[in-house]
Each structure stands twice: as C-alpha cells, then as structure tokens.
UniProtKB/TrEMBL annotation:
InterPro entries: Ac_CoA_lig (IPR011904), ACAS_N (IPR032387), AMP-bd_C (IPR025110), AMP-bd_C_sf (IPR045851), AMP-binding_CS (IPR020845), AMP-dep_synth/lig_dom (IPR000873), ANL_N_sf (IPR042099). The lineage of its organism: Bacteria, Pseudomonadati, Pseudomonadota, Alphaproteobacteria, Rhodobacterales. It comes from Sulfitobacter marinus. This is Acetyl-coenzyme A synthetase. The modification N6-acetyllysine is found at residue 611. Gene3D superfamilies: 3.30.300.30, N-terminal domain of ligase-like. Pfam families: ACAS_N, AMP-binding, AMP-binding_C.
C-alpha cells in the first residue's frame, strides 16, 4: 500500500455538526492523556450512578501483579442505565427495531416502555429459576429481541451472561456452560436465518447431556417448530412471560462486578472467557458509540453484527441503549432473499448510521452494484466497518456505491478484549484513508514496538507490533477463572504494556494502519479463530495423526482455513475422508471453522527439536513458496518439496 493514500477530509457539514471536530479532538485527546483521572471522572457522568465513585483509576500493568480498576467504589446498574433512566423522556420512543429473517414477516418496533416491561419479566423468570447476583447464565439465541431482553435481564439482577453464538456446535456450547458453571441456558426452538432454520433446542439438548443435571433450559419458541422437552429442566419462556410481573427493581452493582463473559479464540489452547466490568465497560461503550458514529438524538442506527460477538454486545445493545438510541437488530443474512437485503432494510427503516464487516462488503460487492442502486439510501449519514483490515477496493466500493461519496467511513479497530473502539477516525474530526484505522480514541496510548526486542519505535513511517501503554475503562479485567492466563497472554511478552496481538504501521502522517495478527490467530470473515483450536479438533479424529492449520488469503472471507493433515498409518487419503474431516470440524467447533483446503501431508516441516515451522506452511498456503526463508534448521528439508508439489492454493 502506498504511503500517499488518497485522503477524504470531513465535509464542512460534518465538521460543524459533529459531536467532536478536529480542534476538540486534539484538546480532548491531550486532556485524556495528561489527566486521565479528570477526563474519565467527567465522562463517567454520562451514566447514572446509584452510589457515586470517589476513585477513578487504579491500574497496574506490571506482569505478575496486573490489576485494572475503574470507578471502583461506585455502584450502578447497567439495565437501569439502558432503560429506566430514559423512561421519563423516551418511553414511547423505539428502542429496538427488529427486522426478521423473512421480509414478509412484520418488523417490530419495541419502545423503551416495552423494553422495560419485557426485561423485567425476563429478570423475574430468571430469578424464579434460581438465578441470583453473580450467577452465570448462558445465552444461546438467534438475533431476536429476547436476546436483548436476556442480556439486560441478567444485568438487572446482577447475573453474569455469557453469550454463545448460535452458529456454534453443541460441543462448544457445553464447554462454555461448564466453563462458566452456568445455572441456566436460554435458547430458542429454532433459529431462522437465510430461509433455513437451525434446530437450536436440539443442539442445546445435546450440549446439556454433557453438563450438570441442575442446569435449567429456558426456551423461547421462535418458530413453534417441534422440539423434545424435558419436564422439570425445560421452561417455556413465552408461557412464563404471560404471568410474570413486569416490574423488577435493578440490583445495585459495584462498578467492578463482572457484567459478562465472552469466550474468544487466542493463539494457544481453547477459547478463553474474556471478563468485562459493569461501570468502566458501560462508560466506554456509551461514549464510543456516541462519538465514533456521531450518534444524535432521533437517529436510527444499525449494526449488522450478531450479539454472539463483542460487536453485538457493545454496539447493538449496551452502547446504543445507554445513549437512548434507536438500534436496529436484524435476524437474517445480507444475501437473503437476495443481495439487496441490507439496502432494502436501510431504505425501509431510514437508517442513518450503518456498521458492518469487510467480509459482508466484499461478498455484496461481488454481487454487483445493481443490488444497491435499486434502493433509496438517502437517509445514510455515516458508514462503519469492523472485524478485520478492509482492503482499499472494498473501502472504495463502500464509499462510492453505498455512501455515494457523502458518508464518512469509520474503520474501527478494536477487540473482544478492549470492550470498545481503540482506534478509529472520528467523522467530524479526521480525514479518512482507505484501509486505515487512523487515530487513537480518547485515553488510548498506542505504542509500536520492535517485535524481537520490545523496544519502542518512535517516529513516523514505521511498522511493528501494537501495544497499548495504559488502561482505558472498557478494558477486559481478567480471563474467567484464570487470572494467570490473562497476565500471560496480554502482559508477559512486552512488559508494562497491553499486547494486542496485532501488527501495525504508523505512516508518514502519524496515522495508524492495522496489518493483521502477528500470532496464530486467523480472521475468517471477521471471526477470530485460533489455529490451535482447529488443529485439536482435527487430531481428535481417529484417522488423523497430526495436523497443522494456517490462514491464507481468501477473496471474500479475508482469510481461509488451510489444513495440513497427516493420516494414521494405513489410512487412505480420499475425497470422502476430506469431506468427513470438514464435517467433523464443523460439528466439533461450528460451521465458521469449516476448513477451506485440506492438504494431505505425509510429513510436516519440523525443526530438529520437533517444532512445526508454521512460517513455511503459511508461505506454501499463500502460494508464495519462492520466499521460504531460512530452512536450514529443518530436520527433513525434503518434506517441504513434497508439500509444495501438492499444494492446494494455486
Ligand atoms: C471487534 C472485533 C479482534 C481482531 C483484532 C484485529 C481484527 C478488528 C479491525 C481489525 C483491522 C479493523 N480487527 N477490527 N483489523 N481493522 N478495523 O472484531 O473483535 O472478534 O475480538 O477480533 O480483529 O486483528 O485483533 P474480535
């Protein structure tokens, strides 16, 4: 990418009307770094406190004694902040617009008053099922309003939710129910998506076979389709909601009490439970939602993510609702019934801010501009992207075809761990460049480090690994049940810093570009996947002796999953076995982990100490084997020639 990328300055209208313009950004950023306490003390007033805090920040990034506390002696309730405090002025305003999978089915407009009643009902039902403050609840739901009610109901009674993406397998669900020792799983009979319906309850039934008998199952009947029922364990949500009281007093929670756990992939081992706090998280989600998307009262805002991912937590539910926004929730997929669905919805609900992922943009770009051009997109004011680096071609299409050159694009870089945006251009303050995350958000101190030495690289026109030098309120607090793993993952490689796992470039102008993961995490359609997870699924198959998994460039998904598989002696490498392995991984983890390419590997390139040389496997998968680099430490160099000869990505 050239350093002289084209830049798109904010329009005069944006610069004048936005919450933050260039001068304000500079002054606020300076204040946020020089006086973090003062800055966040003021920003924390955007939420209502039941007990005001006296201390703001109490943080130590020293490996071995990491602690992160924000507003630690304050008390608040997230559900009351997202609902109750708006009732005086917004009770009849739409809080959630729900657009079902099937466009023939009616959309729902849920007002703040209704959201209050539904959340209270759900909260009372959970209490009746024995859930109390600090207990865990796993949510395994499609994109239906009940997902938001469930999240807010947990927050209301002080229970900690852990959402499992509805596309995950029964095995993945079971391991998260057990890992968090949840008391209740909330699921639906079926999950309609793209005209098909996933039998979620059947998946939950299978998962619960591997969980404690005491775990209860609350079932939202979305389609009314047939399911099996275990009396005493399964409860019909809609039947219970009819009689449940629609008021429920919100619990006073400490700012540092966990709000939720969200499992995410890392470079080693099984997914870890990222823990987010109540106070700091909400302040940060609310502020970033308002400022990054320049959300104004009366706007209709739509984030296309699933609530199973962090983006859905912060930018469908908590951030927007804390701000009293109207947030759209979509059950379906961008290409059903056809590739104009997103734009139909924008037209139908007069969406003002639209936030999606590069993989969706690329897929829709491939279908042609005519699907966009038939729709009236004049309501759009701003576009956003998240999840992976966006290639300039997709950025330009988004800008020209969707935004008609009049909508700023905010390319928001952040992570499950960060709770909210860490780097993004602000629409009224910064010029944008296709593919750049541009500027740090308030309070964020990015540092670029030399990968090997960990030395700080100063100046512009430089590249290295990206760390953050100090805490921000939305930062994760720990790994559920394993604080040591938290410290080791994020604070041990580069002492004194939070290590993001991403590489980055600071260009000649001092603007930031994320270059992708520097660890063994791959990004498939914006979904994080640890190569170790796919490998351990593969080697769990009786015919597989060894497996190594790497990412390779994929036109639509960003990265595809490339597997090198060594079979047990006497096993035949057949097409049927390939299909079997693909299906195996889908059932072990979920369809998003489905291998794209499986290469039979009689041997894997290893060092003499037995370490698989992934660098070489990555190059072969990228079809870039001319540049294999140093292979002198290989135990058997000839296995490389064999792998190149039979490579799958030509
Ligand atoms: C929010 C979310 C985090 C990883 C992150 C990075 C990649 C996310 C990006 C981006 C370039 C962006 N990523 N946003 N890369 N530009 N705007 O996606 O969280 O699922 O935890 O993934 O995604 O590699 O480290 P999560």
């Amino acid at each position: 990418m050239s350093n002289a990328a084209k830049t798109y300055p904010p329009s005069t209208e944006m610069a004048e009307g936005a919450h933050v313009n260039a001068a304000k950004y500079d002054a606020m950023y300076k204040a946020s770094i020089e006086d973090a306490d003062g800055f966040w003390r003021e920003q924390a007033q955007r939420v209502d406190w039941m007990t005001p805090f006296t201390t703001v920040k109490d943080v130590d990034f020293t490996f071995g004694q990491v602690k992160i506390n924000w507003f630690a002696d304050g008390e608040l309730n997230v559900s009351a902040n997202c609902i109750d405090r708006h009732l005086e002025t917004r009770s009849d305003q739409t809080a959630i617009i729900w657009e079902p999978d099937n466009p023939e089915e009616a959309a729902q407009h849920i007002t703040y008053k209704e959201l209050h009643a539904q959340t209270c009902k759900m909260a009372n039902i959970l209490r009746d099922l024995g859930v109390g403050k600090g207990d865990r609840v796993v949510i395994y739901l499609p994109m239906i309003p009940e997902a938001a009610y469930a999240m807010l109901a947990c927050a209301r009674i002080g229970a900690i939710h852990s959402i499992v993406f509805a596309g995950f397998s029964p095995d993945a669900l079971a391991s998260r129910v057990n890992g968090s020792e949840a008391k209740v799983v909330i699921t639906a009979d079926y999950a309609p998506r793209g005209g098909k319906a996933t039998p979620l309850k059947t998946n939950a039934d299978q998962a619960l076979l591997h969980c404690k008998d005491s775990v209860k199952c609350l079932v939202v009947k979305r389609t009314g389709g047939q399911t099996t029922w275990t009396e005493g364990r399964d409860f019909d949500y809609k039947a219970l909601a009819k009689d449940a009281a629609d008021i429920c007093a919100p619990e006073a929670m400490n700012a540092e009490d966990p709000l939720f756990i969200l499992y995410t992939s890392g470079s080693t081992g099984q997914p870890k439970g990222v823990v987010h706090s109540t106070g700091g998280y909400l302040v940060y989600a609310a502020m970033t939602h308002e400022v990054t998307f320049d959300y104004h009262d009366g706007d209709v805002y739509w984030c296309t993510a699933d609530v199973g991912w962090v983006t859905g937590h912060s930018y469908i539910v908590y951030g927007p609702l804390a701000n009293g926004a109207t947030t759209l929730m979509f059950e379906g997929v961008p290409t059903y019934p056809d590739a104009s669905r997103f734009w139909q919805i924008c037209e139908k609900h007069k969406v003002n801010q639209f936030y999606t992922a590069p993989t969706a943009i690329r897929a829709l770009m491939g279908k042609g501009a005519e699907f966009v051009e038939g729709c009236d997109l004049s309501s759009l004011k701003l576009l956003g992207t998240v999840g992976e680096p966006i290639n300039p071609e997709a950025w330009n299409w988004y800008n020209d075809v969707v935004g008609k050159g009049t909508c700023p694009i905010v390319d928001t870089w952040w992570q499950t761990e960060t709770g909210g945006h860490l780097m993004t251009p602000l629409p009224g303050a910064h010029a944008t460049k296709p593919g750049a995350a541009m500027k740090p958000f308030f309070g964020i101190k990015p540092v670029v480090l030399e990968p090997a030495s960990g030395d700080i690289i100063e100046g512009n026109g430089v590249e290295g690994v990206l760390c953050i030098a100090d805490s921000w309120p939305g930062q994760m607090r720990t790994v559920w049940g394993d604080h040591e793993r938290f410290e080791k993952t994020y604070f041990s490689d580069y002492k004194g810093y939070y290590f993001t796992g991403d590489g980055c470039r600071r260009d000649e102008d001092g603007d930031y570009w994320i270059t992708g993961r520097v660890d063994d995490v791959i990004n498939v359609s914006g979904h994080r996947m640890g190569t170790a997870e796919v490998e351990s699924a593969l080697v769990a198959h009786p015919k597989v002796a060894e497996a190594a998994v790497v990412g390779y460039p994929h036109d639509i998904k960003g990265q595809g999953i490339y597997c090198y598989v060594s079979l047990m002696a006497d096993e035949e490498p057949t097409e049927e076995l390939r299909t079997e392995l693909r299906n195996w991984v889908r059932t072990e983890i979920g369809p998003i982990a489905s291998p794209d390419l499986i290469q039979w590997a009689p041997g894997l390139p290893k060092t003499r100490s037995g370490k698989i040389m992934r660098r070489i496997l990555r190059k072969i998968a990228e079809n870039d084997f001319g540049a294999l680099g140093d292979t002198s430490t290989l135990a058997e160099p000839e296995v490389v020639d064999e792998l190149i000869e039979n490579r799958m990505n030509r």
